[in-house]
């Protein structure tokens, strides 16, 4: 066994990221040293309180909001739940209809489905073959009963970036609130909530090198949103529960780092990603790139390889130390293929052979080389096993 | 989530391929997720002399195919016919609950191949009921 066989190569940063040392360092004092409860009155609680408020400022600055518009949550899922249920419950007398897209994260889709069971109605807009929502479709879907449009800033599976500002403008033209799940977009898509017509925005710390179980919901000043978590008076009485002080401090530091130089970061990551995509499509026949050719997250590559199944790909990659993910039915507990891949029109067998590689800050050109070496072997091996592989595969004959 | 046995069988599957001069060929697929297995049998006398497979599916499907082709080598056709998915599961040290259906693939494909062989020889195909894998539905010929 040489070193290469033993390496772990992480290319699943859409699932989660490692935490940066700077973030850990920022959090460290808030575990044992500044452990006070921010709600306490004595001076000892001042430092934790300052830590939380500094983080609120960091999050606000990253998205062009005011600190009083930022509310900390226990992650992206809670922020999505709060935004959608909160708006629905607070605005019921104005209407009962929500417009969203077919490719949202389950944190949005399952929340909408729950609201349907409570008597709301939801329109799930289709997307085009690249995963884009047409703002014109949003306009058509809005009725006088519509209270909310929710569309993600960027998709977690195929990386497609939505025309968020346009969708927000359509919503506002009709006096409808606009929520966006920006969980995958922070640090990759520059966000300005005013310029982009956003009323509510969800984000999650562990997608941009911050701690897991931390997140925030931006709520535009004056927006009517029902409280979901009742209890103490934290977060200006809108989200109860003693603050996760170290987590919040880490979230603040992480978002500051992630948004300091988005363009530079994207250039570096996209150049590796583009080499990876070209290399794979060149080396592996009957392969395709899923998602949008240009309007996509800089770190996202999502392929389909015909004749093979995604879980098998993952396990063979895993045997070579590569961490990736798939939208194959066989790898989901429900045995349903990814709703995102189906929504962009992939037939089941292409969704089956899907593979997502998402790069991150620790990846190097060397990592790209390694994947370019291993992945064609893995696909070739599985195609030898598959009965669907055409008899004369379009690969150069070996001598 | 998989046993070591499954991983081993999946990463080094045995009997992958086709038999150009197969005496019986069978294909089975599961509607659950679209997996497909094709099996080729060589029969000598009443026994399975050789078996090859190709499978499109997850690691559990490929591992089941591999282990099943090894199990039926040397069996009589009647014995191979009654191979149950429970036996395949056993040989793999079990599969996670959502993957149990993948172990039905190989016994199904084997029965289709055996009937293909019988029909080619001008024999009545054996009756296949939808198989629970328990071997107790009455449609499996008795062993021996
Ligand atoms: C687009 C999107 N929304 C929401 C979530 C949920 O975030 P969290 O894991 O912080 O609950 C994720 C992450 O899995 C995501 O990718
Ligand atoms: S082949 Fe789909 S789950 Fe096993």
TrEMBL record, chain A:
Reaction catalysed by this enzyme: (sulfur carrier)-H + L-cysteine = (sulfur carrier)-SH + L-alanine
Residue span(s) of domain Aminotransferase class V: 10-371
This protein's UniProt keywords: 2Fe-2S, Cytoplasm, Iron, Iron-sulfur, Metal-binding, Pyridoxal phosphate, Transferase
Location of the protein in the cell: Cytoplasm
One Pfam family, short name: Aminotran_5
GO cellular component: L-cysteine desulfurase complex
This enzyme's EC code(s): 2.8.1.7
Active-site positions on this chain: 330 (cysteine persulfide intermediate)
Biological-process GO terms, alphabetical: [2Fe-2S] cluster assembly; amino acid metabolic process
Listed cofactors: pyridoxal 5'-phosphate
Assembly description: Homodimer. Forms a heterotetramer with IscU, interacts with other sulfur acceptors.
The protein's role, per its UniProt record: Master enzyme that delivers sulfur to a number of partners involved in Fe-S cluster assembly, tRNA modification or cofactor biosynthesis. Catalyzes the removal of elemental sulfur atoms from cysteine to produce alanine. Functions as a sulfur delivery protein for Fe-S cluster synthesis onto IscU, an Fe-S scaffold assembly protein, as well as other S acceptor proteins.
Name of the featured protein: Cysteine desulfurase IscS
Organism, scientific name: Methanoculleus chikugoensis
High-level lineage: Archaea, Methanobacteriati, Methanobacteriota, Stenosarchaea group, Methanomicrobia
UniProtKB/TrEMBL annotation, chain B:
Domain NIF system FeS cluster assembly NifU N-terminal: 1-121
GO biological process: iron-sulfur cluster assembly
CDD domains linked to this entry: IscU_like
GO MF annotation terms: iron ion binding; iron-sulfur cluster binding
PANTHER family: IRON-SULFUR CLUSTER ASSEMBLY ENZYME NIFU HOMOLOG
Protein name: NifU-like protein
Naturally occurring in which organism (per UniProt): Methanoculleus chikugoensis
């Amino acid at each position: 066994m040489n070193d290469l066989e033993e390496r772990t190569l992480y290319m699943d940063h859409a699932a989660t990221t490692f935490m940066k040392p700077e973030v850990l360092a920022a959090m460290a004092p808030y575990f044992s040293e500044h452990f006070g409860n921010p709600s306490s009155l004595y001076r000892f609680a001042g430092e934790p309180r300052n830590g939380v408020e500094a983080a609120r400022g960091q999050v606000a600055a990253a998205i062009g909001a005011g600190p009083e518009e930022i509310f900390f949550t226990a992650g992206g899922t809670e922020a999505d739940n709060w935004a959608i249920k909160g708006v629905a419950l607070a605005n019921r007398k104005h209407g009962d209809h929500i417009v969203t897209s077919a490719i949202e994260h389950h944190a949005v889709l399952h929340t909408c489905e729950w609201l349907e069971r409570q008597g709301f109605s939801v329109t799930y807009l289709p997307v085009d073959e690249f995963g884009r929502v047409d703002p014109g479709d949003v306009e058509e879907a809005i009725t006088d009963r519509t209270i909310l449009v929710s569309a993600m800033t960027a998709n977690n599976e195929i990386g497609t970036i939505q025309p968020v500002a346009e969708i927000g403008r359509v919503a506002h033209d009709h006096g409808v609130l606009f929520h966006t799940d920006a969980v995958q977009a922070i640090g990759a898509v520059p966000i300005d909530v005013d310029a982009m017509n956003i009323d509510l925005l969800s984000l999650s710390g562990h997608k941009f090198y911050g701690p897991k179980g931390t997140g925030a919901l931006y709520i535009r000043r004056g927006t009517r949103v029902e409280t979901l978590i009742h209890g103490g008076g934290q977060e200006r009485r809108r989200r109860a529960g003693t603050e996760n002080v170290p987590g919040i401090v880490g979230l603040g530091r992480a978002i500051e780092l992630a948004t300091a130089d988005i363009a530079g970061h994207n250039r570096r990551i996209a150049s590796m990603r583009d080499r990876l995509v070209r290399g794979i499509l060149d080396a592996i026949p009957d392969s395709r790139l899923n998602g949008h050719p240009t309007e996509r997250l800089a770190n996202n590559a999502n392929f389909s390889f015909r004749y093979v199944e995604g879980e098998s790909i993952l396990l063979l990659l895993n045997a070579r130390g590569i961490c990736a993910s798939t939208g194959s039915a066989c790898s989901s507990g429900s045995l349903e293929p990814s709703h995102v891949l189906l929504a962009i029109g992939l037939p089941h067998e292409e969704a089956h052979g899907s593979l997502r590689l998402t790069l991150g800050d620790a990846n190097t050109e060397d990592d790209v080389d390694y994947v370019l070496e291993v992945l064609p072997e893995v696909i070739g091996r599985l195609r030898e096993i598959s009965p669907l592989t055409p008899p004369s595969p379009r690969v150069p004959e070996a001598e | 989530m998989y046993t070591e046995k499954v991983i081993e069988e999946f990463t080094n599957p045995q009997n992958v391929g086709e038999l150009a001069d197969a005496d019986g060929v069978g294909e089975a697929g599961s509607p659950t997720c679209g997996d497909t297995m094709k099996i080729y049998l060589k029969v000598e006398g009443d026994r399975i002399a050789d078996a090859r497979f190709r499978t499109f599916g997850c690691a559990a499907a490929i591992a089941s195919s591999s282990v099943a082709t090894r199990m039926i080598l040397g069996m009589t056709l009647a014995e191979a016919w009654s191979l149950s998915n429970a036996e395949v599961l056993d040989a793999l040290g079990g599969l996670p609950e959502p993957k149990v259906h993948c172990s039905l693939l190989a016994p199904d494909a084997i029965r289709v191949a055996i009937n293909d062989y019988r029909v080619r020889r001008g024999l009545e195909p054996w009756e296949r009921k939808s198989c629970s894998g328990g071997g107790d539905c009455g449609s499996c010929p008795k062993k021996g």
